[in-house]
Specification:
There is one protein chain. By secondary structure, the protein is mainly α. The protein has two domains: 104 residues, no CATH class; 31 residues. The chain has five helices and no strands. Helix 1 runs antiparallel to helix 2. The longest helix has 37 residues. The termini are far apart.
C-alpha cells in the first residue's frame, strides 16, 4: 500500500480551507442570530439550519476527499481551520457584524430586545438574606466592625 504524499498534502490543505469556509459560514449565522436576538424560535431555527447544512457539507466533503474512508487527520485539519478562522478573524469581524445586524434590523423593522436590569449576584443576595435572618450574624458583625476600624485608621 503506497501513500502519495502530494495527494495527502492536498487533502490536508483542502480540509483546512473547508474549515475556514465553515468558520465563515458560522459568522453568517452569527449575523442572523444577532438580527433575531431574543426570539427563541428564530435562533433555534438558525442553529438547526446551520448544523444541518454543515453536516451535509461535511459528509459530502469527506466522501469526496477521502473516498468514503474515515480518516482523522482531515477532520483535525477542518477543526484547525475553523478555530484559526474563528479566533483570528472573528474578533475583527465582530464590530462589523453588530453594525450590519443593526442595519438589517432597522430595514426589517425588527425591534431589538430590551435587556433586563442586572440582578444582584447570588452571593450578594445570599449575604443580605443571611445577615437579615440572623444566620452567621456574629460573622457579619465581626467583619463589619473590622472594616470600620480599618476605615477609621
Amino acid at each position: 500500500m503506497e501513500v502519495d504524499v502530494g495527494k495527502e498534502a492536498v487533502k490536508v490543505l483542502l480540509s483546512l480551507l473547508f474549515g475556514v469556509g465553515a468558520g465563515l459560514f458560522f459568522e453568517i449565522f452569527r449575523l442572523s442570530r444577532a438580527v433575531f436576538s431574543g426570539r427563541a424560535a428564530a435562533v433555534f431555527l438558525c442553529d438547526l439550519l446551520f448544523w444541518v447544512v454543515l453536516s451535509l457539507a461535511s459528509v459530502l466533503f469527506f466522501a469526496g476527499t477521502a473516498g468514503g474512508r474515515a480518516e482523522l487527520y482531515p477532520l483535525a485539519a477542518v477543526m484547525l481551520g475553523f478555530f484559526v478562522f474563528y479566533y483570528a478573524a472573528s474578533r475583527f469581524l465582530s464590530p462589523f457584524r453588530h453594525r450590519l445586524a443593526a442595519s438589517i434590523r432597522r430595514r426589517l423593522g425588527v425591534k431589538e430586545r430590551q435587556k433586563s436590569p442586572k440582578k444582584p449576584s447570588f452571593n450578594k443576595r445570599a449575604a443580605a438574606f443571611l445577615k437579615k435572618r440572623g444566620l452567621f450574624r456574629k460573622f457579619f458583625e465581626k467583619s463589619s466592625s473590622k472594616n470600620k476600624e480599618k476605615s477609621v485608621k
